[in-house]
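A student in our group prepared the protein record below, which I am reviewing. What it holds is a sequence and that sequence's fold in token form. My question to you is simply how this chain folds and whether the tokens agree. Do not assume that whoever made the record got everything right. I have pasted the whole thing underneath without changing anything:
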Amino acid sequence: MQDDVRSDVWPAELEELLVRIGHRFGRVDLRRRMRALTHAWLVWDVQDSEWFSDCPVLLDLTGEQVEINHAKFDDLSITWNT
């Protein structure tokens, strides 16, 4: 299943989220730190038309790389620029 998110929806949803929970993060302003997602890499199973959930997902946020590894339900690793 693939959901397409319109680019004009993301800022409004972020603003709504910040209104609801932003008071908990007084020194963080996500709007200043937000970067565009320029590339995403994942391991795709062509035969079954799905991604391998036990392989890493790499996100390129305008030159900043985020790697997400989720091997088990309670085992999550997120690394930045490694």
